[in-house]
Batch of 2 targets.
Target 1
Amino acid sequence: MTDTVVEIAGLSKRFGSGVLAVDDLSFSVAPGQVCGLLGPNGAGKTTALRILLGLVKPTSGQASLFGTPVRPGAPELGRVGALIESAAFVPHLSGMKNLELWWRAGGAQLADADFDGALEIADLGDAVRRKVKTYSQGMRQRLGLARVLLGRPDVLVLDEPTNGLDPGEMREVRLLVHRLADAGATVLFSSHILAEVEQICSHAVVMDQGHLVAAGSVADLIGAEGSVYVEVDDVAAARTLLEVHDGVLSVVADAPGLTVHVDGVARSQLVAALVHAGIGVETVTARRRLEDAFLGLVEADESARATGAAS
Amino acid sequence: MSVASVTRTELYKQLRRPRTYTAYGLIALIPVIMTIALKANPPDPTDGGRLLLLASQSGLFIPASALRFTSEFMLVIVVAIFGGEAIAGEAQWGNLRYLLMRPISRGRLFAAKLLVAGFYAWVAVAVVVLVGLVVGGIAFGLQPIEIPFGFFASLSTSQVLLRLAFASVFVAWTLMSIVTFSFMVGCMTDSTGGAIFAGIGLWMTWLILDAINSLGSIRYAFPTHYSGDWVFIFTSDDFSPDLWRGALLTLGYVVVFTGFAAWWFHRKDILS
């Protein structure tokens, strides 16, 4: 058995228009990992996923599934369930018929599809017998997720899967991904909602302008550094005190409180110092999230590239 | 995975499309309307086409007359729709990428889509002929007929049906140049409208150019130059060499259009 389920090696894609969508991208996803693919719009995430699924041919480099280089129609694609951008169907057919035809087109037996399990996830009720053209965006997306799960694939490739879903449905998707990961599935999950990735993913790959910025576990990416948000009864006094506190890098007004950038000092120490000075503390929360890490990584990468281009 | 499994699903998808039975319904109306008109107002023997004159005497000639009228325009539109929508329609729905995420090679999907588009185009020709036979038989009967002109003194029912079958195959085959051209454009553009109109536009261009006598032998390179020659098999025992030339010319176009479409589809990035 191969050590990686998904292997992207030196992948580049330049479209005919001259746009370099993916630039020497390399990363891998191990079995059972839930890996988030992050990046601003135009970072090349969807193009990379399309190459992985055999939809787009790379200019150079290679994408592999289960240790085998991907080519259009490769047998390995039968072990992958994918949702790319939005779910799309044949509009004049029912949701159920769409699933059946899609499954049969690959030459698979209906008995192997586990329609009941997939439809339970989609939770469309009798609407699954209605024509897809009558569906809302959310219903289509849920049917798309059901299609992803047909045949219980080993790998799920989900590109913005919560698009068009309401908050309750988004939560359901997150729980679903957790359940699938617990059951041993490998998930490659692209989303622009960083909090979502932080909740779902154990690992993340950060892309910007087509190339890799960082890859690793979410915990590693967030790192030890961070910031703390505090709300106190005397903002001015708290600011004066914290600005000179050991381990505090900077203090920024963040009405109604303060955001304190720290390095190596615990939140409890800051609270103790404030209380000791007679300042009432109403709220203390960690601010360093994946979002901060992501923005920091992308900004650092962009400034490094700008410096490299200038020199 | 075999082409058969993809072809079966494609046949079902296209059969359930409203545009499929709407198109068939519209072309089926032509022989019906023609029969009603001929019954209500028979043509003047000294005026009008020979096929129409024969059609007013025996229902066996209604299909041929209907084929003559539809093959130059309505059938062209219908087959351009079937060809143009095959790949482009799927891309326009955004469903092409999901089909190609299955372990289905592009060659197999291409072959299945083209087979199905061609099949429905041939069925369109068959609809015109069969509806013509039914309504013609009801209105005028299917009796053998005296031919007041041409090579034959008369044609038996089986002789007419044999010629009708040949004419249907010839028309359907000639139209395959449009099916494959629309199919090819659909592979290249992902736009159903563009692919359909390209097919219709090509046929119109051929018709117009073929009407310009000054173009000389260049006109022999257009399938439209031969597309109407089949009508003579109902009045002559001689199957004109032009029929075979037309069929071979169509084969050339079909091979070129299909080959280019296959090459394009194989290297195409699926972005829709």
Target 2
Amino acid sequence: MKQSFDFVLTHFKDGVFDWKKGYHSVCGQKPRTFRIMPWLYAAAAVALAAFIFVRYENHTARYLAYDTAQSFTLPDGSRVILKPGSELSLMPRRNPRSVELTGTALFSVVKDPQRPFTVKTDVSYTKVLGTVFHIAGSRLDVFEGKVLFCNAGNPEGIVVSAGESASISEGEPLKDAQAPNPAVWATGKFVYEDTPMETVLEELSAFFDTKLYCQDSGKRLTAEFAAGSSLEDIIGLIETALDVTITIEK
Amino acid sequence: MTGNSTISLFGILYIMELEKLFKEYYRPLCLYALRFTLDADAAEDIVQECFTALLSHQADKPVPYLYASVRNRSLMWLRSRKPMEELPEDLPMEDAIDRSMEDARLWEAVEKLPLQRRKCLVMSKRDGMSYADIATELGISQNTVRNNISKALDTLRHTLPASLNFILLFF
């Protein structure tokens, strides 16, 4: 080591033994990659970081109900029950309270006045001010609180309150009467309180995909049935309770 | 970039490999040659000849090839200059490589010293000049010369592995 030190100091000469000059005289050109590589590395690193960032920011969470109704808790704590065949998606990094829906879902939304909860479908755009509501295709039913309901792509809309329903017809949001149990597929029961027979039969017909008639349609029903019951059992109970005859058209 | 713009991926990899070889071994090889020749210009010429030979030979293990060929050419150069003299001490190749690396590190450290300090150090150690002569030559006081040399040694002490510090204390 000491020998190394003496040797170097005894023979030291300025400006010799430079590898770049050596490279130049041997290869006839200056070293090139030495200048390119830092750029290449920097560019690659930036591109990779940007790619990861975009992927991360645009990460989309998807919720899907395949053949049974599925219940999910969304990132903001809101609950959603999806009807079979329905799909919900959202970007947690962008805005966890902005969701897109294909199909039918029942929402129970956590209140947060600073950040409205929004649901976008093909035809409608619903802005939620904190509540329980149900969206089926172009139709909206509100059970608690109120929501702003618009045509997709138009921020002007109507406020729909608890107990009210609305749907998009010919591109305009319009209020209409709420059926007694629009979200029976999610709640699992039909609940009637002094409901006109006509309304009851209409709802049951739609649910069981048939057509029910009753000649004595002026009567009113107060009852509760599990959605899993057979149509015959439900009809039997109604006939006994109200002393009417109901016919089924196949 | 300019010049050969059409160059294959293998071409680029080859150039990168070659540049790496130059970057890591050019100076150590020069110092290895210098151990034989004691003449910096001759040493550098020999190393460049060996690299040129490597380009046409495509050796599998370029580093041992370069060291062996630098050694052979250096000895040839010595014989042509002083045919009667004894050959210098010869180390096994691994030790020779290690020593050349050590020499190269020291060389670089000296090269990186501030100009004035380097001048003082080299004049004193290489040229054997007295502090008084150096002071006259550079137009500074003897005290400054002494200061410069001690600071230069200090810097070298910090750039070198710990094992060397001990030795430098007595330098």
